[in-house]
Description:
Layout: E1 9-12, H1 21-29, E2 34-38, H2 47-57, E3 61-64, H3 77-85, E4 88-91, H4 95-98, H5 101-109, E5 115-117, H6 132-138, E6 146-148, H7 170-174, H8 183-194
Parallel strand pairs: 1-2, 2-3, 3-4, 4-5, 5-6
Amino acid sequence: MDTSHVDNAVLIQHGGTYDNSYLFECADTYEGRFKVVVMLDPDDTDQAGTLGALKEQGAAGVRLYPDQRVRGDDPLAVWKLAGELGLVVSCLGDVARFASDEFRSLVETCSDTHIVIEHLAGVRKSFEPPYEEFHRALSSPGGSTLDAIATTDAEAPSQLPANGGKRMTTTERTSGLLTRPTPYSCIRTQVMRVRTEPF
């Protein structure tokens, strides 16, 4: 990180791994360098309690899937609790799930929860215009806080658009880009500039 002039990074738990201790160990070893995003065991009967404990341990976010729910009276309890605790939800899924009515309803219901869409909603170079499903996946319903970030293959700084580094809304970031022939590279470079500290 020092060689590449990277000051900070987010450690996001790998899908299917629910022991977050190694991430916290790294964060403790290199104090101030890392933020930790945890995962919850779907078989945990007290996910809310576990999330609260992980927050106390220093978690900055929780990784959830778009269709992830908990057993009990309120299937969205963990999504809502994340917002109450000030935790970012790092959301991993594909464009179909992010574009679904179910996910849009979730975002509107959990309007106090900051949701980050990982990997630009699963965009692929094989996507063809007019990218309607992709545009819907990245649009933010109801004024909620919804961001899309790229986690790999960042462009060199000289290739980034000259927008002054200002934060733009999801609509601003995506509109005007989706008509271009290469949505993956266009949106990826735009987001890498404007959204650098979601956690």
